[in-house]
Here is the input.
Amino acid sequence: METVGSKAEAGGLAHVATVSFLASRASPAFGFWIALAGGVALARAGQRDGVRLGYGASLAATLQTIALIGPIRLSIPLTQALSAPMIGALHRRATRVRWQVLACAAIRLSHVGLTAAFAVFVLAGGLDVYTKSYESLTGWTFLPQGQTAAVLFTVAGLLIWTAFASVVQVLIYRRALARWPAGPIHEDEREAEPADPVAGRFDPRAVALAAAIAFCLLVIGISWPVLAAVAVWLVLAALIGGGDRSVAPTGTLLALLLGGGVLVFTLVGGLGADEALRRALRAVLLVLVATWLRAAAGAGGLREVSRRGLGRLGPIPPAREASAVMDELGSGRQLGPAVRSVLASLRAVQPRPMPVVDAVLGWVVEEARRFRPTMPAAPLDLRARLRDALLVAAAAACGAAFFW
Here is the structure.
């Protein structure tokens, strides 16, 4: 049975995970290492209160990061969000280290395997293109050539990374959990936060549905009519709907980087200029649709969509726990001080691996205890209007381009 202290700590741990996961998604190269702090917090939630509340905190932190910056680069901390509460629960049961590592590795390998499959078969264009790119990049080396070699080389790389990352993850978690100070957290008086307004003119529920439709259409097809239809719809939706423009520069930069990478990879892989351009444009549009989702709905709108979605899931675990923790996280106004506190902790230690690790782990504990949960804000008054129906209908109408 959950106590006041456990609920308060779950909110603080989800807050720490939010800070860590946001920073990991913003980092161009060190996402795994930065996300470890958030994983430690979620492992503590799983250790202290079991997998249900642990995964509730994990889901709440993940949805909070989506509300704040959208779904771009969500895969960076996703493995730790999926595995950390389970590792904490296994640690609580004194499960041997090797079984914790194997459980973590199974989740990580599934995640990176699906990500690699999406990159090869959806973005790059299949095994033939991937093999030709592999041969172009490795033909001057001693590595074997051919499709089998390309697949085995990729699988070997995924296995090596999975083994290394899983061992590091479990050992860091265990180091943190073994040193976690005892004693309950007593909840202080909470303050209510006003509900954030919707950023744009559209109902955020319609924005989320339209973005999902556009994303599916882009995954299914790459014909010029489909790409043109989605691009025109996206431009019109962005111009008419307004929204939070602050996320546009970062989203545009990521879109260009991904599109450029896909273009080079597919050209090297032997695809003609026409298909390479179409695949590159699709990659750009996928990121821009995700960016528009955050801009048009805003943080408050996406948070409300998440809250209502969790409410519809009802008793399905861990929806109820995630909904309660999300209410405690509020609008994320405590994120700024949390970032400043971790930077202050890092400046106070020598720039060596273990002192840095211990400083971050100490910050995880202190920040979770400093967190003050908020009172649930009043639900946003959302009313679907004609323009919202037209937005969704226009996104669905892009599918007619398949028949051109």
Q: What stands out?
A: Confidence is low (pLDDT under 50) at residues 1-5. Residues 69 and 294 are 6 Å apart (CA to CA). The chain is about 75% helix and 0% strand.
